[in-house]
Amino acid sequence: MEIKNNDGKAKVLAFYLPQFFPNDFNNKWYGKGYTEWTNVGKAKPLFKGHYEPRVPADLGYYDLRVPEVANQQAELAKEAGVFGFAYWHYWWAGKKLLNEPGERMLATGQPDYPFCFAWANESWYKKLWNKDKKDDKLIMEQTYPGEEDNIGHFEYCLPFFKDKRYITFDGRPVFLIYRPLAYTEVSKFMEQWNALIKQSGVAESFYFVGMIFKNGDEDRHLAMGFDCVTPQHSLRLSTNYSGLLDHIFTSIRYRLGSKGAILRRVDYPQYAKTIWKEGVDSRDDVAPQLIPCWDNTPRAGRRGEVYDNATPDTFYAASSELMKGIAKKENKLVFLKSWNEWAEGNYMEPDLRYGHGFIEALRKSIDENMSTK
């Protein structure tokens, strides 16, 4: 599915979490039947007015083993003006996890909706924040064995790249790498994959997107061979802390652990004032990132972070500011974080408080600021 078609419209790709179904890995480490809904359902408010727990509306506490759910998600995403999903993709030296929803989508052709992969290349920890646990337990380590593993990884993904729904940019499959700096040989990986995709006859090369976690790191990543970068969402959110003070505050929070941990709260409406950075986001090799809301306390408790006052209205203000900037660019790619990361309070799907509010806000901001031709 070609993304750069000169129609004047924003191309919003929403990160999609395929975590909502029981599987053997989660059963082993978290208990039988565990999914992200487990954390979502047991969340509690930590201060007056804190919106927890969050309860899904239209789709309920869905199970991604049910094909109808994926079709309904795609319909809601279309309603929001989202161009396609960027499925979080997991590959640990040949080991796969949470791959079943994508594989079913490939095999059945449903939903008939554009998609691409975002490789979540990081180790997994159990994330035990219990007061009697000082350290997390490593349960899946991200390693990079080399060229043979890269070939195996490519061969697994190739049927997806060949699918007509796979998103391309100027005919090149879009592939995002979440932690570029964690992979010391990432440039060689991209070179090898570019050669492999050319040999396959699918495309001349990939359109590689790297996520950056530090302001000013755009050119550093592009020099590695990335075609585009997208800034991790919190880089653009103004807080009450900055510079050295922010670094000290963050360090103290994590050293305290769960005992005496300090919940961090930031004001989402300030996001609208910082979301667009002229001279950076206006570049065609930078794809801005948009976030509707954030509250990871269902996972982290008081070690978490909450974006206060994240509502459809404040999200509309933020997304409108971004769309005004995107309208002036040739490359109108935008990453939306996220479609359904419920345990991080980071989702677009309808809930009991706001219904379709976030969906309607995004659609409105797109329609008001982008071409309708």
Secondary structure category: alpha/beta
- The overall pLDDT, averaged over residues, is 91
| Global geometry | globular
User: Helical proportion?
Assistant: 25-40%
Order of helices and strands: EHHHEHEEEHEEHEHEHEHEHEHEEEH
Strand content: 15-25%
- Number of helix segments? 12
Number of strands: 15
Report the biggest beta sheet as strand number plus sense, adding barrel if it closes.
9 strands, mixed
CA distance, first residue to last residue = 19 Å
Unreliable stretches (pLDDT < 50, length at least 5) are 129-133, 238-247
Radius of gyration: 20 Å
What does this structure look like?
The structure is a single chain. The protein has twelve helices and 15 strands. It has 373 residues and is an alpha/beta fold. The strands form four sheets. Strands 1, 2, 3, 6, 7, 8, 9, 11 and 13 form a nine-stranded mixed sheet that branches. A two-stranded antiparallel ribbon has the order 4-5. A two-stranded parallel ribbon has the order 10-12. The radius of gyration is 20 Å and the shape is globular. It starts with 10 loop residues before the first strand and ends with a helix.
